[in-house]
Amino acid sequence: MKKRSLVAVACSIALAGALALTGCAGTGSSAGPSDQKSDSSAQPVQLTVFAANSLEKVLPEVQALYTAKTGVTFADTQFKASGDLVSQLQADSKAADVLITASTATMDTAVSNKSVDESTRLDMFKNDLVLVAASGSGIKVSSVADLAGDSISSFALGEPNAVPAGKYAVQSLEAAGLCTTATDDAKKISVTWVDTVASKVNAGADKVGTVAKYVASGQAQVGFVYSSDVYRYDGIEAIFTVPADAHKAIKYPGAVCADTANSQAAADFLKFCMEDAEAQKVFSKYGFELAA
Description:
Elements: H1 2-42, E1 46-47, E2 49-52, H2 58-70, E3 73-74, E4 78-80, H3 82-91, E5 98-100, H4 104-112, E6 122-126, E7 129-134, E8 155-158, H5 164-175, E9 179-183, E10 189-193, H6 195-198, E11 201-205, H7 208-217, E12 222-226, H8 229-232, E13 236-241, E14 251-256, H9 263-275, H10 277-285, E15 289-290
Parallel strand pairs: 1-3, 2-4, 2-5, 8-11, 8-12
Antiparallel strand pairs: 5-14, 6-14, 6-15, 7-12, 7-13, 9-10
C-alpha cells in the first residue's frame, strides 16, 4: 500500500510538471505576435516629409493615396525652398523622415552634411523651366534673349542661392548672354546683369510661388517657374518653355533622412512614389515625369 502511494504521488508530480511546461510554452508562443501587434497598433507609423515648394499641390494627393493603401499617415509636410529645407534638416537631423528637393545641388549639400542616407538617394522626377505671364495678357516671347527687348519691361525669378528654379533661370539667362555669374568658395552665386536687363529684373523671390504671384498681380510682366507650377497657381499661363540645353537638367532627388526612426517606412514611401501606377497618374496630372 505504501509503495503504491509513493508511485501515485510521483506520477502526479510528473504530470503536473509536464502540464506546467506545456502551459508556459503555449503562453510564450502566443504572446510574441500578440505583443508585436499591440505595439504596432499603439505606435502607428507617421512620416514627416520635407519637400520642395513645387510639390505642394501634388504630394498631398499622393500621400493620401498611400495612407489609404497602407495605413501610414503623414505629419504636416514642410514645403519650402530646397535650400531652406536642407538648412533646417542640418540644424535638426531628426526633423524629418524623407527629403525631396528640386535640384541635385541641394541634395548634394544634404549628403555632404550627412543629413540623408546617401545609399537611399534616387532621382525621382524631372521638370521643365518655363516663362509665364498673366493669364490672357497676350505677351509673347520666342527666346530668353527676348527679355532684353522693348516689349518686356520686367521679369522675376527666385533667389538663385535658395530657390533651384531661380538657379536654373540664371543659367538660362547667362546662356542667352543677359548676365554673367561667379561662385565663391562657399558656393554662393553672384550675378552681374547686362545693361539691357539690369533695371528689369527682380531676382529676389523667396520661392517659385512668389514669382507666380508677382506675375499674376502684375508686379512683373513675366517670370521663371517650373511647368508644374502652372497647375498650382491661378492667374498665370506658360508662354515659353526654356530649352533643356540652356540649363542643367531639372531633377528632383529624394532620400531617407539619416537619423529617422522610420527608415524602412520612409524608403517604402519613396518606392511607392516611383512605382505605384495610381501615384504616377497623380504626378503626371501636375506635370511631373519620372526621371528614369
